[in-house]
Amino acid sequence: MTDTKVYLLDFGTLVLDGYMMFWGRGPSGPFRFPCYGVLVEHKEGRFLFDTGYSKDWFDQNMPGLAQQTELQTVPGQLARIGLRPSDITHVVNSHMHVDHVGGNHLCTQACTLCHKKELESYKQPEIWEAHGYADRTALGTAAPDASPATPEPDDRVQDIVTPRFELLTGDNEIARGVHLFETPGHTPGHYSMMVELAGRRPMLFTGDACYTKRSLEENIIANAHTDVRDAHTSLQRLRDLAEQYDAELFYSHDPDAWRDWKPAPAHYS
Amino acid sequence: MTDTKVYLLDFGTLVLDGYMMFWGRGPSGPFRFPCYGVLVEHKEGRFLFDTGYSKDWFDQNMPGLAQQTELQTVPGQLARIGLRPSDITHVVNSHMHVDHVGGNHLCTQACTLCHKKELESYKQPEIWEAHGYADRTALGTAAPDASPATPEPDDRVQDIVTPRFELLTGDNEIARGVHLFETPGHTPGHYSMMVELAGRRPMLFTGDACYTKRSLEENIIANAHTDVRDAHTSLQRLRDLAEQYDAELFYSHDPDAWRDWKPAPAHYS
């Protein structure tokens, strides 16, 4: 564990109305927020937690929202630290919303880990969940060699699977010191990830269970949610985990916090 | 039943951002909407479904939202048809949010009917429910003769109870042809009301289970909700009830629909 490194990969930004970020609180007006992934270089593998969005899809379907350069993609960010998408051994999705799975299919040698309930929701979303999940077109063209070894009859899934696919339930330590914690509510099968490091406090990546520092402090869940009670319970769980492990919280879409962090090629260890 | 009459009582308007009306859909910008009550003149009693809001409370706590004249109050509206608040035998609350219970305490001879779960939520709201429910100050000064015969130790409740109080569960026919249907999701104990009349289609008052016609047509629940699934189920229930009884839907906060209806002193029968 002592040589584990964590890189924050900059995947660009999106913009939404403040009411879409902070349920029932706003304020109204454009709120531009970062999207990023987390590369965990670990002796047991290279784990990529969330893969950003496809700019092409946003430009075609929701023009004006996405700001992303070529550098702010999975290949672009990995290149900064001398890696290629095919070097990723595991993709881990906090959840399968369109801005978190956009680069999955590029990781042509990886096994995707996600919560069993999350895949179910992705395949058959409730009415109020459908807008968050990507359709085929959100994910670009599937990589030529992305022929799932795990047979999945559903076209929707073909596009986001890497060659292998593993479904999880409950909390999991997916590699020594790399923990997935169930934090549902935003989506049914949402995971937050905590990484223990030799030289600093554990890093607890909230995923969309907590968009920003303000969300935690003022107890504001994401406007997009499937279960109000679960979402509040998960906010509390993040507080409890941070205290239990003396972990530092890394919010998913906080422009202020993002400015204070060290993106790749810098790393945390 | 043949002499039952229904009056729509104009209680003024409020304004909220469009995102607060239409969950996740908006658009942003001020959306001004009517608040109204429904008087059912019935041989078994005078039933008042929802009692509006206290302008004083809004002016003090959320200034700029309320537009309400003296005429647009329970006393003002009842006076237009020759009645006083003390003539009301039953107050029926779709739910206990601040814009639906403001005149309860003025009905000094009435029994309040509400769902058992609704009172529980009012007394001990969840974190995400608290903003919607009135505190003491939202309800004006309790009428001097409003000494509840039903002892309730909780100060919050003293202010909204009429002299008597009756808790309901499940669907209820509270008078012949006057039906309460459970439609939870916006709040835990929400009721919609259907009134059968001799000379026209039944009138189905959705309450906040459906703010507007658009909400129903585009399947948009209120931004304020305690259970996403229940709220969508209740929207569907309203559609099903309307079809089953050939009822006309009366939405709770639809400025366009409101313009087409006949407010008191006119009536439906």
Task: Describe, in short, the structure shown.
Chain A has 269 residues and is α/β, with parallel strands linked by helices.
User: What structural class do the secondary elements of chain A suggest?
Assistant: alpha/beta
Summed up, the helix count of chain A is 8
What portion of residues of chain A is helical?
Answer: 10-25%
Indicate the low-confidence ranges of chain A by residue numbers.
136-153
Order of strands in the sheet with most strands of chain A? 1-2-3-4-5-6
Please give the structural blueprint.
The structure is a homodimer of 269-residue chains.
Chain A: E1 5-17, H1 18-21, E2 30-42, E3 45-49, H2 55-61, H3 74-80, E4 90-92, E5 111-115, H4 116-123, H5 155-158, E6 164-168, E7 172-175, E8 178-182, E9 191-195, E10 203-207, H6 213-217, H7 228-245, E11 248-251, H8 255-260
Parallel strand pairs in A: 3-4, 4-5, 5-6, 10-11
Antiparallel strand pairs in A: 1-2, 2-3, 7-8, 8-9, 9-10
GO molecular function (chains A, B): hydrolase activity; metal ion binding
InterPro entries (chains A, B): MBL_superfamily_lactonases, Metallo-B-lactamas, RibonucZ/Hydroxyglut_hydro
Family (chains A, B): Belongs to the metallo-beta-lactamase superfamily.
Describe the structure.
The structure is a homodimer of 269-residue chains. The first copy, chain A, is globular and about 45 Å long. Chain A has eight helices and eleven strands. The first copy, chain A, has a single domain (5-260), classed as Ribonuclease Z/Hydroxyacylglutathione hydrolase-like (Metallo-beta-lactamase, Chain A), CATH 3.60.15.10. The longest helix of chain A is centred in the C-terminal third of the chain and has 18 residues, at 228-245. Chain A has helices at 18-21, 55-61, 74-80, 116-123, 155-158, 213-217, 228-245, 255-260; strands at residues 5-17, 30-42, 45-49, 90-92, 111-115, 164-168, 172-175, 178-182, 191-195, 203-207, 248-251. In chain A, the strands form two sheets. Chain A has a six-stranded mixed β-sheet with strand order 1-2-3-4-5-6. The model of chain A is unreliable at 136-153 (pLDDT under 50). Chain A starts with a strand and ends in a 9-residue tail after the last helix. With 269 residues, chain A is α/β, with parallel strands linked by helices. Helices cover 22% and strands 25% of the residues of chain A. Chains A, B: It comes from Hyphomonas johnsonii MHS-2. Chains A, B: Belongs to the metallo-beta-lactamase superfamily.
